[in-house]
Amino acid sequence: MQKSKSMHVSNGRAIADVAGSIINSDHFNVTTLNYFNYTFYEFNSTISNASACYLVLPNLHPTVLSNGTWVNGTSCYDPYYGIGLRGSLGILFACLFAASITLTLANLGKHGRLFLQQEKRFGAIGRRWQWYWMCFVAACGIIGGASAVDVDRDYLQGLAIILQSFFFYLMIPGLLGVVWEEVRHWGSWQERQAYDQDPFSLPQNDKRSRKEFFMPLIFYLFAWLNFFLNIPRNWGGFDAQSSAEEIDITARPLATDVRFKMGAISALAAWCIICWALQHAIHYYKPRNRGAFKSSVGLIRQTPIRFLLTIPLLLIVIGYTLSASFLWELHPGNIAASVGWLYGLGYSPTFLILIINEVDGFMRRNEDRELIDQRMSRGLAIDAEIGFPRARKPWWWQKAEDRFLTPEQRLKALTTEIGGGPATSRNIQRNVELGILPVRRPEDDEEPFRDQEARSGTAFAIGDSDSDSGQSVSQRTTSTTASRPQQVKSMLDV
What we know:
Layout: E1 6-9, E2 12-15, E3 21-23, E4 26-28, H1 30-35, E5 39-41, E6 46-48, E7 53-55, E8 63-64, E9 70-71, H2 85-111, H3 125-153, H4 159-197, H5 207-230, H6 244-255, H7 258-285, H8 292-302, H9 305-324, H10 339-363, H11 367-385, H12 407-416, H13 425-434, H14 442-446, H15 452-456, H16 469-483
Antiparallel strand pairs: 1-2, 2-5, 3-4, 5-6, 6-7, 8-9
Helix pairs in contact: 2-3, 2-10, 3-4, 3-10, 4-5, 4-7, 4-9, 4-10, 5-7, 7-9, 9-10
């Protein structure tokens, strides 16, 4: 920069009030620049005031008019660079997360579908929460990965770095929810199988049930603490990375404040609750082993393979956020940090957790179908024990053998076969053909409180002379005959 006079203001240079000034071989009217309060920042080659910012690089040749209008000017916040490694990896992970949503929806339809009547103790929403959280995490990954493109392209950081940092930290409580719900529901599935086999083996007022009541409350307490400590804050400081002075004053203190530290610690506490829930389910619903060593080996052996993978992967993500809350060099909001930390310890374990659950979801069967097969197997075993052959049953036997009914509902279905339950077309037809169908008169329904004799129609006419006796007898006979209900013994009498 060449000019006859200058003075320092903050971290920029004020344009002196002289006849002219040359910046990067371009002549500017210094009077106009000073009138509109523009300041030249030599360390990043920008001219800005409170409302506008323009680049004055050697390959750019802007011009400012006397009314403050810029001609051929390039805003500091327009995309200037090409897409780098951070943006390329962001696009890759955004596409992977988008593809995982389609797989998640397929698994949601498979495992969320009901084939048995819903029970209050084992609600259908419990098996679906895992897939809801996975959709949420994938959506955060898509937005964060797409924002990385503009992080590379922007000359001065703005909204892009804020969005990527915001949605990365928003992804953490969702990821905790994914792993928690899969572990919690696995324990609930073990309980459901034991309850279906023997409803009296698992009471609802013992120590086990009280633990299962409080564990979700404690977990979601720490998960929501992580959310409220990390998310509701002023994220505007992450774009202040134009100079080392801005980073030391604004960005670094924001990224390493106590709220990020406490948020990471609360996430670690939630991870410990997940491990406790897994140990609880194995202790109560799986065969027990005697001794500390055998119990430890049995704990690992009884743990599903997907938990042996997803729980350590979740710990890697939590460990990365905890380290980044102390070290600015690792923080996802630092544009100068190596992208290996963000994508290697942040996005990669997250995507692996999702894809492991997707593969496991396609390999597992729907729980209702599995429970139906277990009931059929137990029925076959009971029949074999009592020596009852599994012969071919008539078509009407299926009503009592309906696999969708509970034992109580099967008994109710059996009662309809012997005359109980509401009237059906088959029962009505049987009564018409084999029984007596009484014919009701409209006046019987209209006057329910009439005397029984009057309703039957057996009234006697009383006359004063013998001449009326014949007429009275005739009236009596006609009235009695007309009052008798018609009896239909067969459809041929109609």
